[in-house]
Each structure stands twice: as C-alpha cells, then as structure tokens.
Amino acid sequence: MTWTAEQKMQLLFTIRTKGVTEKRVLEAMEAVDRGLFVQGLFAERAYEDRPLPIACGQTISQPSIVALMTQALEVGPRDKVLEIGTGSGYQAAILSHLCRRVYTTDRFRSLVAQAQAMFDRLGLTNIITFTADGSHGLPDHAPFDRILVTAAAEDPPGPLLAQLRIGGIMVLPVGQSDAVQTLIRVRRTDHGFDYDELCPVRFVPLLEGLGRE
Ligand code: SAH
Asked: Residue 6 class from Cβ within 10 Å (0-12 exposed, 13-18 middle, 19+ buried)?
C-alpha cells in the first residue's frame, strides 16, 4: 500500500500550516511515504499528524515535528549529518534527500536492522546506520555539519557539542523526560555556542547504553 494523492496533500497542508515553508523540506516530506515506516496496527494512521508507536516501545515522531526539526537544521546538499535515534528510520530518510550523507544511530539493534532494510528497499544509499549509544556521538566519523537528536536529554550531550563543526547546527529536545521539553537549536561559532528555543515538544528520553532487543 502506498499513500494516495489526497493523503499526501492533506499531510503537506498540515505541515505548511505548522510553519514549514522551506521548499526543499516540503519536497523531501513529499518524497518519503511515512506509511512504509509504520507497521502493523497503526499503519492506517500513518498519514495523520501524530506520533505513533513503533517496535521496542519507541515512537515515530509527528510528521509536522519531523518537518520543523528538518527546517530548523538548515541542511545543505553537501552536509554530513548525524542523527541520534534512528527509530523507524523516517527522519533519516527525509534527511537523506537533503544532504550528502546521513549517519544514524539507535541503541536498539532490531530497530536499526529494520530501518536499514527499508533504506535498502528504497535505494537510500547515502544513509549509514549504527547500533550504538548516540550520546557519545560517532567520534570516528566526526566532525558533522549538522546533528539532529530525536530523543530528549536534560542538556545537550558534551560529546555531541564537541563533534559539531564550527559553523554547524544541532537541533535537539531538552528537558526532563516526563516533563515539558523544549526543542532548541545550537549553533557552533568561532567563540562557542549560541542557543535558541524553538517550541515545546515531547520525545522519548535519551537513554544510556544499548537496548536489549
Ligand atoms: N527519529 C525517529 C524517532 C525515534 S524515537 C523516527 O524518525 O522514527 C527516539 C529513538 O531514540 C528511539 O528509537 C530510541 O531507541 C532512541 N534512543 C534513545 N536513547 C538513545 C541513545 N542514547 N542512543 C541512540 N538512540 C537512542
């Protein structure tokens, strides 16, 4: 099953009304069928603007939040992007249309395997997957032009700040896991880091170590 023209139009309309106007971002959102990344019971709700459960007790983010985070990241075609929290692989698939290479990591091996299978099926060869605790980043592959974290930490993890290139941007939710979180954008300058707050959000927590599944 692929999404219908009407579902696509509806979803893009919703995303635009939430403030996503960047043409490249809208095109990437249009290019990736979210239904492929939501399996089982919830598949038929894949085109609604809401987060949905995926395997391992995790969630696929709300499409308008995926679009807003992608827009806030200001991704360019030559960028090397790190994503923490592969989950279903949907966000990584969107990023893959906008940049040179995506490095994505999750602490659950089975989520990474499923996402990798979907990237293979879709021919998204510029995504490299890792099973690792992403709060340490990927030091062997650093620095990154852009970093996107899709799980919430109390503060931006130090290793991720260190692996951001000067001039680079990181977008991430911060706050206590069960309280209100804020999406923030961090820009690395010659002198340090500039922070701005984007909007309230709710993400699963960034956890330590590998998951068991
Ligand atoms: N970007 C995903 C949404 C994922 S939900 C998508 O498009 O579907 C957040 C994900 O972050 C979960 O899959 C969870 O396992 C993962 N996660 C949490 N803590 C992590 C950590 N320390 N390192 C890597 N992944 C982590």
From this structure: exposed
